Amino acid sequence: SRHAARAAGSGRPRGRIRTLYVGAPLHGPVAHGLACGALLSVRNGDFWNAMAYHGGGYNHEKKRLEEWWEITDREGWQHVQNLLLKAGLTSPVWDFVLEVRRSLALDFAGAVEVEHWRQVAERILRRNAAAAAEPRITPEGVTVPRHRSDAEMEAQVAGVQRLIGRIARYEARFRADGLLAQGKFVRTVEAWDYGRAVSMARWGLGARYCTLQEAERAVVRAGSVSRTNYRSWEEFSAAYVLGRCLHFDEEEFGEWYQDMLAAHRLLTTDPASPWLNIPWN
Q1: What is the Cα–Cα distance from 28 to 34, expressed in whole angstroms?
Q2: Beta bridge mates, 232
Q3: Which of 224, 179, 213, 136 is nearest to 39 (CA)?
Q4: Is 139 inside any structural domain?
Q5: How confident is the model at residue 135 (pLDDT cuts 50, 70, 90)?
Q6: Which among 79, 16, 49 has a CA at the least distance from the CA of 219?
Q7: Rounded mean pLDDT, 240-244
Q8: Residue 280 and residue 4: Cα distance in Å, rounded?
Q9: Predicted pLDDT at 25
Q10: What is the rounded distance in angstroms from the CA atom of residue 88 to the CA atom of residue 119?
Q11: Which residues are CB-contacts of 137 (< 8 A; sequence separation ≥ 6)?
Q12: Tens digit of pLDDT for each residue in 98-126?
């Protein structure tokens, strides 16, 4: 892909943990936040803890943000940065299906069979559609009912069923590869946005769309919301990788997945890894 080609052409050693030991955080809230972006830093061959980030230089960073994010100014950067910190760029359909399973796991105190997950998701979709088709009286007045055609409804149900299958197959592969513990599942893919929020803060700084202090605040916030929503580096990592794969990989288990698996293995085993030196909580 052009993304991989550009990264490979940067002259940096990809797939290695690179740490700055002078003039960069190694412990504390900023370091913890930066470590939430370490999967991509390792993949790209960047120093994981370089807060004063310049990347490929001012022009390269501006071009990167324009090409990949359609960001061309400070306001655009702020908008996307804030969305990422609120987990506002993950698909609402992903959120829906994972929330259904999370609720079932709580109700039944254990693993959720894929067929049960599919049935309950379909039932909720149909119930929500029926409710939306009824006029309701609110303080603002009567809401207009939203009627879905049968074809629209069936397409939505089929799409959700396919997504549940994809997630189940990814998780099975994650367990086989040691990315997810046996019997565990990904509760939410918000980590995909939080990890990207760390990268976005550094890219924004490299493109001079923000100050160092603003970038640091965003990084600390990303670390904080990650800690609130996940219980360990490993849990955060599996969620980030699932989000990335759902976004890019199309079940090919190609480089979008393999690069992250290699980075995960390094970050969970290398004695120099921030994940082994910075406590999650």
Answers
A1: 10
A2: none
A3: 179
A4: no
A5: low
A6: 49
A7: 97
A8: 30
A9: 94
A10: 27
A11: 143
A12: 999 999 998 877 789 999 999 999 999 99
The count of domains in the chain is 2
Query: Of 85, 77, 98, nearest to 209 (Cα)?
Result: 77
- CA dist 96 and 99 (Å) reads 5
188 neighbors 95 (Cβ within 8 angstroms): yes
Q: Could you give phi then psi for residue 138, rounded to 5 degrees?
A: -120, 170
Which residue type is seen at 93?
Answer: V
Same domain, 119 and 65: no
Q: What is the pTM assigned to this prediction?
A: 0.89
Which residues span the domain enclosing 39? 2-83+189-277
State the Cα–Cα distance between residues 168 and 185, nearest whole angstrom: 9
- Regarding whether 237 and 162 lie in a shared domain, the answer is no
Separation of alpha carbons 115 and 122, rounded Å? 11
Tens digit of each residue's pLDDT (9 = 90 or more) over 21-64: 999 999 999 999 999 999 999 999 999 999 876 778 899 999 99
Residue 5: pLDDT over 50:
no
Amino acid letter, 269: T
Domain assignment of residue 200, yes or no: yes
Assess whether 203 and 238 both reside in one domain: yes
Beta bridge partners of 210: none
